[in-house]
Structures are given as C-alpha cells and as structure tokens.
Prior knowledge:
The complex is a heterodimer.
Chain A: E1 2-8, H1 11-14, H2 22-39, E2 43-48, E3 56-61, E4 64-69, E5 79-86, H3 90-98, E6 110-114
Chain B: H1 7-29, H2 32-53, H3 59-86, H4 93-105, H5 110-121, H6 128-138, H7 144-150, H8 155-172, H9 183-203, H10 214-230, H11 235-248, H12 274-289, H13 296-309, H14 318-331, H15 335-349, H16 351-361, H17 372-383, H18 387-400, H19 404-415
Helix pairs in contact in B: 1-2, 1-3, 1-5, 2-3, 3-4, 6-8, 6-9, 7-8, 9-10, 9-11, 10-11, 11-12, 11-13, 12-13, 13-14, 14-15, 15-16, 16-17, 17-18, 18-19
Amino acid sequence: MRVMVFVKATEDSEKGLFPEPWTSEMMAAMGRFNDALRDAGILLMADGLKPSSEAKRVAFDGPGRTVIDGPFAEARELVAGFWLWEVKDMDEALAWVKRCPNPMYGPSEIEIRPLYEMADLP
Amino acid sequence: MSAGETHQAIEAIFRIEQARLIAGLARVVRDVDRAEELAQDALVIALSEWPATGVPANPGAWLMTAAKRRAIDAIRRDKMRARKHEEIARDQDDVSDDADAIERAMGDDPGDELLGLIFTACHPVLSADARAALTLRVVGGLTTDEIARAFLSSEATIAQRIVRAKKTIAKAGLDFEVPRGADRAARLSSVLEVIYLIFNEGYAATAGDDLVRPGLALEAQRLGRMLAGLMPETAEVFGLLALMEIQASRLAARTGPDGAVVPLPMQNRARWDPLLIRRGLDALARAEALGGKDGPYALQAALAACHARARNAADTDWRRIAALYDRLRSVMPSPVVELNRAVAHSMAFGPEAGLRLVDEIADADALRDYAPLPAARGDFLFRAGRLAEARAEFEAAARLTRNLAEAAFLRARADACG
C-alpha cells in the first residue's frame, strides 16, 4: 500500500526559524533516515515545503474563486514536508515513522495517510 | 520510546530488520536456516522484553546482539557436549575466542551483508524457482504461505523448495560474500534474473484466472529499489528497476472491469501511474549515465519508455522501438525478442514487414506452442486483410494460452474476423 507521510508544521517552522546547530544535525540524521528508507525499497518520493507565508489558497464557493494569501493560521495543521512510501501495511509505516529523527526543534507531529488503491475504487 | 509496545508493533519492527539480521548471522554461522532460527529467537526475546522496557533506540542492533548471544550460547553448548564426548579438557578461553570471532565476522557494513545474502540466495547453483522462493523468504520476509499463494503452489511444495535450497547452499559451502572480480557480472545477472522472474510472475501471470498478481510485482519492485540503494553505481540494476517501474505503471490499465486483458494500444493512458513512469525514466537515465544503455534490461526499459512517453497509441515512436529491438536482439538473442521485433517492425513498416520477420522464426523450437506467436501472426494477417487466415491464427493462440482472460481476448479477436 502507498502512504503519504506528512511532517506537520510548527509555529517556528512557519516563521522559518531553524536554530543551529540543531538544524544541521537534524538534516544529517534525516539524510541517514532517508537512506535507510531508500535501502529498504519503500521510498517513492520526498520533499520539504516552504512556510505558508509563500503559499496561496483558493477558496471555492459555487462559481466563486477567492485567492487567500499566506501565511495561514493554525501552524500545526499545516504541512511542512512529506514522503510517499510503498509499505506492506500501516504497522510497517508506523514502525518507520517512529524511527524518524525529530523533524522539528520542539514538539511536532507526523501524520500517516493511506492512499486510495485500485481495490478501493468502485 | 514508551513502554507497552504491542506485539503487532514489535513484529513490524522485526519485519524491517529481518533481512539484515539474517544476512549478518548467515555470514557467521554459514547456514541460512540457522541464521533464520537465531533471528526468530531474537524476535521471541524482544516480544517478551520490549512490552515492559519499550523499544530500544536502535532495535536492529539490539536484535542482532540478542541473536549473537544465542549463537554464542549454542557454540558453548556444542563445545560442552564435544568435550564430554571426546573427554578433552579445553580452556574456557576458547569460548571467548569464539565470541570474538563472531564479533569480527559481523561486518561493519550491514548493507554489504544484505547484498551478500541476496547474491547467495540468487546463486546459480540453485534453480530459478528455488532462488525466487528463497529470496522472497529471507530477503523479502514473506512467509512460506504467502509465497505459496503468490506462485499458486502448495505451502508444502514451497517449504520443501526452500529447505532444499538452504541445504544446497550449505553443501556448496557458499560464503555469503558479495562476489568480486570476474565472477561478479555473471552472479549479478543471476540476481537480476530472479527479481525479474518474480516481477513477471506478478505482472504477467502465466497461469490461473487472475491476469495480474500485483503483490508479487510490488515485491520485485521493492527488491529492485533495495538493490539500487545497495549498488548505486551498477548500471544494469537501474536498467532492471526502470523496466519494472515503467511496466508496473500500467498495472491499473492492464485489465478491464471484467478481468480481461486490455492490450497496450487500447489502454486508458490516464490510468497509467505517472509517479512510476517518472521513477522509471529517472532510473533509465541513471542506467544510461552509468554507461549501461545497451544492457539487456536497460534496452527493454528504453522500449517500455517509448510507450510511456507517447501521449496516445498513435503517437508511439515505432521506428525507435524497431531500432531498439534491432539492438536488443544482438545483446539478448532469443526467439521471443525476435517475435517482438517482428511486431515492432509491423507497426513501423507495415504488416508485411512483420509477416516476413515472423516467418523467419516460425520454426524455432522455443516458440512451439507459444501463444503470442500465432497471436502476432493473426494480428499481421488481420491488418493485411487476410481475415480467414487471421481467424485460424487467433483460434490457435486461444487454445495455447493458459491464461483464461487472455484466451477470452483472443477468441474475441477471432470472432471479429467475421
């Protein structure tokens, strides 16, 4: 199964605050984690997202299309980065996420969302 | 890590570590079966300890240490038994020497060990079927039952195949090392062959009423990606990976709602998986950059890429495909390649070109009772307007194929000849 794994943003990441030397150490650890994902054959793609201050939203309401400029509130609901993995089941995805280095300086969350598969579609 | 991990979570961690555990242990004990047992012992210990202590920071190293302790205990017991038996007094120091020997044999590079296990499980001393079953078991971590279901075989048959393979490896005294030097290329092609065999068993099921068994294809892709991670400078590994990714991108489009095969030109390209196509094209570019553009898998991947790049069937660059087949037949001569080459030439230069090439190979032994031969001939004849002859070929092909969905497709083509 494919899962999208979201690294959620924090107030700091939204402000673009990445304290050193913590950030360099995290990036090195994250590089090793990504190597392990690749060597296990589960990594399909990965990327980091810029803070929502550089983002735009388009609100849909009937024919209406309203553009909303970032930054957006509720930092912890926003996404700061993602992976796409091919795993056997959610247990495997969980086991991998748990060994991910802390992605943020303070407390943070990673969310695992299974993708729709052929078998789920009508 | 918090305490109170469930057995399910611990087993998931074990599945991640299993192949590397077996690889590291096999190198020491020189016995796949024993290595598997030791890894299982480590799992049992983890299942009893981790729920209380929580998962250790480096679960892989923890499991390896637990398994090594079991190995040392066993050596110690064997020594005691031998001592009693032979009535030879030996120093206790021997045991710590053994422990040191185990430490030394545990390589510093777990990736290298895993690669060694893959090369050993795919050793040419084993039959292709045995290589596939053993690789899925010890590298892929599939259970015997899962492998049996994937190959439409019985659990007993697969279990026996794996036991025999392990014995053959032990008897041959294989060393679980990555081959170096002149041996390496031949051994690598044995590995690639096994992975592609597993892929094809999933992608183009040769028997049964399911046209594709995507589980096996996924397993092969995973092995291919793993191998690409472990051998980042080896062109043909990327050639094979590219081939599998691009072919797998069509899985969803390959069967209709009724389970019938949808041939490539009629597939809904919107259902091709763009991510896998991109990954496939990237892997192909990597293979070519490493100087591997004329490798057999890279050439086949380049062929698959021609289809992947065409927005619709009419846009397909058949001249390029025909030219690629001209090269492939010199790298990988086979009647099947010749047949596909005939199909490509028929698309590039007309059905008569196809008929001419197919007639040159019609007597090949390998193509006797091979359904795609009359199926291709039927197609050339149909396009040349020779409908009665085409019908006979399609009917012959339908009788030959073991795949039920494919037979239905061929009978429909026969009926379309009027």
